[in-house]
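User: I'm writing a short report section on ligand binding and want a predicted complex to refer to. Could you take this sequence and 18C and write out the structure as tokens? A short remark afterwards would be nice.
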Amino acid sequence: AVHTRDQVELPPPTIDNRLTVHPLWTEIDRISTEQMQAAFEGVGGEIGWQLFAEEGDMRMYRRKAYGAIGVQDSYSLDNISPGYAKNLKSQEMEVDGMVMDPLKAMHKVRGVSAREMCHYFFNPRYRYEWETTLETMTIVEEVSSDAMVFHQTFKRIWPASQRDALFWSHVRAAPGNTYAVINHSTTNQEYPPNSGACIRLFVTVCLACRSSYPAGEEPTRENITTSIAYCSTVNPGGWAPAGVLRAVYKREYPKFLKRFTGYVAEQCRDKPLAI
Ligand code: 18C
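Assistant: Sure. The structure tokens for the complex follow:
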């Protein structure tokens, strides 16, 4: 039947054995665990998170941050200049004026499961249908059913240079009807940075989803709700005008989250619920 999906292509409920023997496994596991924990922490009590977009159930917060040029991993404090590290405490970081504001978005979507959300985010087959910033996408490595490495180029924004990214992507389940996809920049000899027209950007993204339905009931399209926490830190990789950058993400993040969740709801409408 047209409307049945192969269970095999949905995110697996447990980690694929092929991933745990891959050289990237230790890093993937560590960063995924950290990212998922952080995703479900609130923004309310934290200093420095500013609400910048709100629409229906969607709320987007950012924390103003500036990184040093050449910092590849915004989560590693070993790599960054003392000025940057010192200012981390005040949440207002400025070194060399490169904007890399961490973003955190919350949303609620009815009628789809966490597993379905993550399926459409992880699986490259659907990416061009919802990802509007994309110019090209190449699968660099199919690690396992729950991990892949991608090279992507993005649409150029005048007057900045075009950007590309090389990142691993991992989908995993967690207790309590939870699934998440974590994307994090990596390296590959066949895809050296800054070798062509593109400047390599660095990204850490986590889409964490948790489903709920009334206690004592079976989950259905009618009674299921999925809470989404989307966290993203993009280091532009080289200078880009701060004003243009902030304008881009103020426009692009809400556009992405609305479009992506709408797309998944639409795709799932006539299909049986996959929990
Ligand atoms: O998470 C998302 N998508 C995933 C699958 O693609 C994956 C991708 C992460 C890369 C995000 C970086 C995108 C940079 C795009 C730059 C060009 C945009 C052109 C738009 C014009 C139409 O995890 C969803 C990602 C949603 C993207 C939101 C935009 C974020 C902008 C951040 C600043 C970019 C800095 C570099 C550009 C410099 C230009 C001044």
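A remark for your report: The pocket of 18C is lined by residues 131-133, 152, 154-155, 157, 160, 163, 165, 183, 201, 203, 205, 234, 236, 240, 244-245, 248-249, 252-253, 256 (CB under 6 Å). The chain has one domain: 7-43+103-268.
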